[in-house]
Each structure stands twice: as C-alpha cells, then as structure tokens.
Design brief:
Blueprint (H helix, E strand, L loop, with lengths): L1 H34 L3 H15 L3 H13 L3 H13 L7 H8 L3 H14 L3 H11 L11 E5 L8 E7 L2 E6 L24 E5 L6 E3 L10 E6 L5 E7 L11 E9 L2 E2 L3 E2 L9 E6 L5 E6 L9 E6 L10 E2 L10 E7 L2 E6 L9 E7 L5 E5 L10 E7 L2 E6 L6 E7 L4 E8 L9 E7 L5 E8 L5 E6 L4 E7 L5 E7 L4 E2 L5 E4 L3 E2 L4 H25 L3 H6 L5 E5 L12 H12 L4 E8 L6 H19 L6 E8 L17 E8 L1
Parallel strand pairs: 22-29, 22-30, 32-33
Antiparallel strand pairs: 1-21, 2-3, 3-4, 4-5, 6-7, 7-8, 8-9, 8-10, 11-12, 12-13, 13-14, 15-16, 16-17, 17-18, 19-20, 20-21, 22-25, 23-24, 23-26, 26-27, 28-29, 31-34, 32-34
Helix pairs in contact: 1-2, 2-3, 3-4, 4-5, 5-6, 6-7
C-alpha cells in the first residue's frame, strides 16, 4: 500500500513538473516572437500559456498588445481589461480601444485615471479631443467620400496619384498560415508581406508596380516628385539587425531611359532603427520620413532632410514638438505647400487621425485635425490631394481600404427677419461675425435689411456666429446664432432660417414717444370735449370706419349678436399696418357712477388686449362710464348704453 502511494505521488509530481516545463517553454517561445515583433505567431502560444497558468499579468498584457498590433481590437480590449483588473501596469491602450469602438465616456474615464497618476501633453490632447467631438464635424459637408473598386478583402492603403492612376500598398497575395509557409508571411500580422501596385482608379484591375520596388519582404509607402521621375520608397533591409529583425529602410530610384534604374539606399538608414514612409516635396528639395529612433520624442517621429544644390543631402532634422508627440506620428505627405501626417498623439476622434500643419491667427504653426468624414474613431492615414480630389486610407470597416474624396467648400444660406420700427425711415444694418478658435469674433459679411425687414447671408456650416445689428438710432444689438441644424432644400442648397428678431428700442426713444402720444391724446380729448358732448360724436367726424359692439348687463364680453361684427373687425385689423385705433366704452346708468366708470374701463381693456396684439398700431381707450348715454336713464331698456365703439384712424 505504501509503495503504491509513493508511486502515485512520484507520478503526480512528475506530471506537474513536466507540465510546468512545457508551460515555461510555451511562454519562452511566445516572448521571443513578441520581442521580434512576430505578434501573429505569439498569440496562440500566449493563449495556450494563459489557459494553463491562469492569471499572469505580464503575459496577459503581451497577449493584449499582440491582438492590438494585429488589428484584432475586440480581443485586445478583452485582455487589456483583464490586465487592468489584475493590477498590471498598462498605458493608454485601453482608453484608445474604447475610443476606437465609439465608447467615448469609458475612454474619457480611463484617461482621467491616467491623469490622476501623471500629467502629460498627450493625455490632455486626447481628453480634449474626446470631450469636443463636435469640433471634428464642422467641415463634414466639404468632403464627399467613396470606397474605390481597387479594394480587396486584404489591406489596401497609401494610395498616391501617379500619372493616370494611383500607386498603392497591398498584401493581397494569398497568404498561408501553415508552419511550412511561415517564412512567406509577415510575423507581425500573419499575412503576406506588402507590395506596391498600380490601379487606374476606374476598375478593380490592379498589377504590381515594378520589380525594382518589390521584394520578398515588405515594400511600400512610395513618394514621387512632381514630374514622376524620382521615387522614394520603403522596404525591409536585406539583413537582420542587432535586434534580430529586418529593419525598414528608405531607398530611392530614378526613371531613366523608359525604366526605373537600380534603387539606392539613402545615407541616413541605420541598422538599429527603422526609417520609413518617405514623402518628397514636389520640387525634390526636402524629404520627410518617419523613424523610431530613440532620440525622438517617443513612439515614432517625423523627420526631414534637405537637399544641397549639388544634389547631396544635409543632416536629418526632427520635425519638432509642434508635430511630434510621445505617441506615433506616421505617413507624412506634402501637397500644395501643406504637410499632412497621421498621429494618435494629438486631439482626435480615436486611433490615428490625419492632420495638416497650418498657421494660427497669431501666425504660429499649429496642427489641424481634418475632421469627419476623412477621420473616424479608427485608424485613418495616408492623405493625398490633387486640386479638389484626393485619396486617404482607413480601417473603419475592418481591413485597410483606400477612399477617394472630392473637396468642395460648402456654405449655408442664412435668412432671417427683423421686426422693423415703422416710425423710422432708416433701415437697420446687419453684420455677420464668426467666432474664431480663440473665442474672438471677426466680421465676415454685412447687409442692409429690405423693406420687409429681411436679410440674407452665406456662412460656413456648424459654427458659432453672432449677428451685430445697428438699428435706426445707431444702437448696436448682439445676438448669438449658429449654423447648425441646416436643411438641404429643393434647390440642393443647405439653408437655415433664423428666428424673428425684435429689437428693443432705446429707453429715451420709448419715453419720448410715450410723452408725444399722451400729449396728442390729451389734445384730442380736449378738442372733442369742447365741440361735442360725446366722444363717439367727435370721433365720427374724424373717421367713418368704425364698428359698434354691445355688452350684456353688468358684463365685459361682447354680446352674441355682435360677435360676427367683432370677428370681422379683428380680421381687418390684422391686414392693416400703422393705424390709430380708439376704443370708447360705456355703461348704463343702473348702479352707482363709480362702479359704472370701472365697468366701462374693463370693457374697453378687454377689447384693447385683443386689438393691440394684432400689429404695430397705436391703440387708445376712453372709458366714459354713464356720462355719455345714447338713451335716457328713464327708458325701459338701456341696451344701447352698454356700448363699445371701435374707430380706425390714420396716424
């Protein structure tokens, strides 16, 4: 019994020891592939090791990183979340993955946690982008994009204009995942190495560009001078460097005698680092490129080198911290005097975004995000443009694809109305100002309103604006508006209607008009009292346009029998402009005098509320109580004394 038990213990121990040895061997193999950037080969071994060993924070982080490098973002997010929960030290990968999936609130929360531990320009930039996403949609109307027919189910990217078509990078050759074909595929993502292709952009037919550029390893990211006679391109070195990998290098070749001559390796390539993504200026005098040289700001940086007059090159220069960040700057291009590049270190929508270098209002260089739809929450890269048309690449649908775009700067037709002051002959002047990035406003247009108070402007969409209105009394009124919420009309024009604007008159003008009106009213009443016993008789000499209404006993509303006349009066007043309307209301002599005075005033006020709301009329009331009777007090009926006369006069 003792021997059997001892044998069982030895067997279990041997099995555990053997299992541990195998796990260590699997981990060692995975780590080696990871260090040599063979992420596709590292994934199955890390998965196997973690499945057997359970929680190993370091292995989980490397597995998550391998999924990220091979663009398997869902799996990357799962394992970065596991790493984060296990307490493993990770950088901003999880925050960026959340942004890529459109989960911006979670991305912001992750970056805020990072910010609690350390402050950095990169964290601030990414937080700003994710909390100001609306800024990236400001120019979205300007671009019309479409996926090209040249795209396949593989990675197709970095298209640049070349004569009557484009040259682009693709790994479309059939790739094999079996061990015997391991040398024919890239260990980075497990797919075929990239090569250069040409396509006429009219159909899906593409062919390899030239054997001068393509080799057994990666070739890609090409750039031409304006005459297409000089080319600079990326390819893997022919020998492994000290790190045991084939570094990327930049080579050049020239079109001579109807063919590309033998390519030459540029002088600045060093075996310890990679140099890639060349971008030559049209005149061939400056070459931009990317390197992971550790003397940079971090990640990959943009560099440039200028050419001497004799054709030799000067020393290479880092493009500086306006462009470069601690993250990755990639895929530079230079068109129409502007440098474009991709980065995941500036304010953006997630992943790599495409940027351009521009001058700020103060004349300083600054980085501008091209915005949606060129950029998305995924990786967007390799921008080229020729006139109003161009190309860029994106993996927003999965694999990298080439998109064509047409650029046309769109405007929005802004129309609106100002309620005019009918007593003034001077029309308001309207200025349209645009709110700049620094918060200051700049006047961009002006207009004088027409006789109906209407004005019209053309303005850039999705922006904050301000209407500055100079009224007839030289008073300036500022009203904040925006060009969001536009609609495309039947004429295929983007338009927006601004709400009716009613300007507040200066207090001194309001007071002066009131004093004048009160004086005129007093004079009118004085004249009427001298010439006539009743106000209605006096007003009848001034206008024959009047309506007679009656009220029930001790009530302020209009009698049912007179409602039809009242409604007709209302409709007529609506159609008029600038009239003077006088309402005279009375009461019968039943009851005391003070009560009847108040009753007639309430009757006049009820009609006043309706009539005064119908336009820019001057409406006055006169409550006469029982002082101006039509029938005597001793009559059997006094219905005629319960009246309201409404007179319409010219001002």
């Amino acid at each position: 019994m003792t021997k059997r038990f001892l044998f069982l213990l030895i067997t279990i121990f041997s099995f555990v020891h053997l299992s541990a040895q195998r796990s260590r061997a699997v981990l060692k193999k995975a780590n080696k592939d990871f260090e040599l950037f063979r992420y596709a080969f590292a994934i199955p071994n890390y998965t196997r090791y973690i499945h057997n060993k359970g929680q190993d924070p370091s292995a989980i982080v490397k597995l998550a990183t391998s999924y990220l490098k091979t663009n398997q973002l869902d799996s990357a997010a799962v394992y970065f979340e596991k790493a984060f929960l296990s307490g493993a030290k990770i950088d901003n990968q999880l925050a960026e993955l959340y942004a890529t999936k459109g989960r911006y609130e979670e991305a912001i929360a992750q970056y805020q946690k990072i910010k609690e531990v350390r402050q950095s320009l990169l964290v601030d930039a990414r937080l700003y982008g994710f909390t100001h996403l609306d800024h990236f949609y400001m120019d979205s109307l300007d671009y019309q994009i479409k996926s090209l027919q040249l795209n396949t189910r593989f990675n197709d990217f970095a298209a640049i204009p070349y004569k009557e078509g484009v040259v682009f990078v693709s790994n479309r050759d059939a790739y094999l995942n079996s061990k015997k074909n391991r040398k024919s595929i890239s260990g980075w993502d497990g797919k075929q190495y990239t090569q250069l292709y040409f396509n006429n952009t009219k159909d899906s037919s593409s062919q390899k560009f030239s054997s001068v550029f393509n080799n057994k390893l990666n070739a890609g990211s090409i750039s031409f001078t304006a005459d297409f006679k000089q080319a600079y391109f990326t390819k893997n070195a022919s020998k492994k460097g000290k790190k045991g990998i084939y570094q990327l290098e930049i080579w050049s070749t020239r079109w001579e005698s109807g063919k590309w001559n033998k390519a030459k390796r540029l002088f600045f390539n060093q075996p310890d680092f990679s140099y890639f993504h060349p971008a030559i200026t049209p005149d061939g005098k400056r070459l931009y490129f990317v390197s992971d040289d550790t003397s940079g700001y971090g990640g990959t940086d943009l560099y440039y080198v200028d050419q001497n007059t004799d054709g030799s090159w000067k020393s290479t220069q880092n493009a500086g911290q306006v462009i470069n960040t601690t993250a990755n700057e990639l895929f530079p291009s230079f068109y129409d005097g502007t440098l474009f590049f991709s980065s995941n270190g500036h304010a953006g929508m997630g992943g790599l975004d495409i940027y351009r270098i521009a001058k700020s209002i103060r004349g300083e260089l600054e980085v501008k995000n091209l915005g949606y739809p060129v950029n998305s929450s995924n990786d967007d890269l390799t921008f080229s443009i020729n006139g109003a048309n161009g190309y860029f690449s994106s993996n927003r649908t999965g694999d990298d694809e080439v998109y064509a775009f047409e650029f046309n700067k769109k405007m929005v037709d802004l129309t609106g109305s100002i309620l005019l002051d009918t007593l003034s002959t001077t029309k308001p002047i309207v200025y349209l100002s645009q709110v700049e990035a620094d918060g200051k406003t700049k006047i961009v247009d002006s207009a004088v309103v027409d006789n109906q108070g209407k004005y019209q402007f053309k303005a850039r969409p999705n922006r904050a604006h301000q209407l500055i209105i100079k009224d007839a009394y030289a008073v300036m009124h500022k009203i904040d508006i925006n060009t969001n919420g536009y609609q495309k009309n039947a004429s295929d024009v983007y338009a927006k209607q601004i709400e009716l604007i009613q300007l507040k008159l200066p207090e001194e003008i309001v007071l002066a008009r009131k004093l004048k009106a009160d004086s005129m009213k007093a004079n009118d009443l004085a004249v009427m009292s001298r010439q006539f016993k009743r106000a209605i008789d006096s007003l009848a000499t001034m206008s024959s346009d009047y309506t007679v209404l009656h009220h029930p006993f001790n009530q302020v509303y209009v009698m049912k029998e007179d409602l039809n006349d009242y409604y007709k009066l209302i409709e007529r007043v609506k159609m008029m402009q600038g009239k003077k309307i006088v309402i005279v209301s009375a009461a019968d002599c039943i009851g005391d005098e003070a009560y009847n005075e108040d009753l007639s005033k309430r009757r006049a006020n009820r009609i006043f509320k309706t009539i005064s709301s119908l336009g820019d009329h001057v409406v006055e009331i006169k409550a006469v109580g029982e002082k101006e009777l039509i029938q005597s007090c001793d009559g059997k009926t006094q219905a005629a004394n319960r009246y309201s006369y409404v007179y319409i006069l010219d001002k």
